[in-house]
Please model this.
Amino acid sequence: MIQLSHVYKTFNANTINEKKALVNVNLTIESGDFITVIGGNGAGKSTMLNLIAGVFPCDGGQILLDGEDLTRQPEYRRAKLLGRVFQDPMMGTASEMGIEENLAMAYRRGRRRSLRWGIRQEERALYREKLKTLELGLEDRLSSKVGLLSGGQRQALTLLMATLQKPRLLLLDEHTAALDPKTARKVLELTDEIVERDRLTTMMVTHNMRDAIRLGNRLIMMHEGRIILDIMGEEKKKLEVKDLLEMFEKASGSEMDNDRMLLS
Amino acid sequence: MSLFFQSLLGATEGAVAQSILWSIMTLGVYITFKVLDFPDLTVDGSFATGGAVSAVLVTQGVDPLLSLLIALLAGMACGYVTGFLHTRLEIPGILAGILTMIALYSVNIRIMGQSNTSLLGVSTIFTVLSGMFAGMSMNLLTILVGSVFAAAVILLLYWFFGTEIGCAVRATCNNEYMVRALGVNTNYTKILGLVLSNGLVALSGALVAQNQGYGDVQMGTGTIMVGLASVIIGEVLMGSRFSFAYKLISAVVGSVIYRVIIAIVLQMGLQSTDLKLLTAAMVAVALAIPVVRKRMLKKAPEEEQEDAE
Ligand SMILES: Nc1ncnc2c1ncn2[C@@H]1O[C@H](COP(=O)(O)OP(=O)(O)OP(=O)(O)O)[C@@H](O)[C@H]1O
Ligand SMILES: [Mg+2]
Model:
């Protein structure tokens, strides 16, 4: 169980560029939840995920994971609990290193690194088997540099890396946004498969309302740094895009900026 | 003409011999410049620190080999200081290196108690070995000792960068965000790279001091340029292949070729005081080549496009 209580985050406080990115956010994520997160530009979605991951510190509030206080833990220490995939396909992998080297580093997430050899022979079989499930033919290119892969291949690889060691929470921040529609769909299906198979607790930011409704068991909507909607269970299953738009207008008192929200 | 070549050969032999001792410094610079993508100016100071520590210890009767080890540790401490300034205090990399380098000038004089320490009549690894192998020339001996050290350092680096920790260090320059997301403290890996690099630079300085028979506070001036020039020459001549061991060997070959080039231009009448200009120009040109090439490549399709329109 992950608990965010009274979490605040302000960027550039006390300057002309002051931006309240998160305002009193309270959220309890149950184990096994698959939460989709939607909201307009600058609503604070990425900020919330980054705070959970420890990219920057909270200004106020507390983040607990199964009772363990993460609030002041540095990013690299929390990493043992979290799997992450970013919007930018370049962010999740080391382009100058081989596919197997990237996987080997991910395989050691949260473990003490030693002066033992970086990849052991028996790991290669595991990586090959895991890569096969992606159906991208990467299992035959273990030593290829990741820089040679396409954006979609890199995202699929990053997803695999994030889940190679089962994370307590998987954080996906618009991880298909930079891909072409067909590849995006493929990576999304893969995500659903992996989350389902490993029963991962997941938070997925998306700007596609259809995906947000179709996937997961719970949906939250953010606006100006607050969570304005939290829908789960049966209620979520019956949801339609037009319901969401209505709810948004009622809760926020303004119209959804449609330019980035994909309604189709 | 033949006299020119004869004296060149003489000069080159000496140059090549010392260059192998310097190549260990180049391997250190390779780690920061190529693996960490951090042009580390600490080396100007830590090279002299290595020389100073070793020279002082040897004059006090410490075993010359042991003095090399202590010089290595001293260099590692220098690297740690730069790493600390850069990561914990968030001082930009170049400036952090300069700060340590400047501070080390005073420290090195403190270590020696004066600006240089002569090793005349003191036993160094080279005098000890030349006593053991009486028939061997000093140049040959220098080459042998240098080769043994360079080979050992290459093996050590090859091993280290293949380990779990070494992989994390390599990945840090490639993609810090990923490395942190995978649970590695990137401050630690950056410091580790700097520590390793400056340790090797100081070891090289210690070997050079024992070889030339004195330690001097000025002996490190311009080390970074020599290191960069050597790395770049090695890369240009040997190409950049995927294998890490090959790249390390390229750095050593680059060091040797650099000295040969210097010996040739000196023979051709350039003053030794002109060398810094020459080295800086060499590095500037080598760094500019990929940029200019990219610009030319980018220009070509643009022109095609304009034609098409
Ligand atoms: N590192 C930062 N420094 C300053 N301001 C920031 C920083 N990160 C985010 N912000 C600001 O905080 C607000 C929330 O940003 P955030 O990235 O969380 O939005 P988002 O909901 O992810 O939006 P998007 O859909 O565009 O990704 C924005 O106004 C943004 O400009
Ligand atoms: Mg975002």
Q: What stands out?
A: Residues 180 and 212 of chain B are 45 Å apart (CA to CA). DSSP finds twelve helices and two strands in chain B.
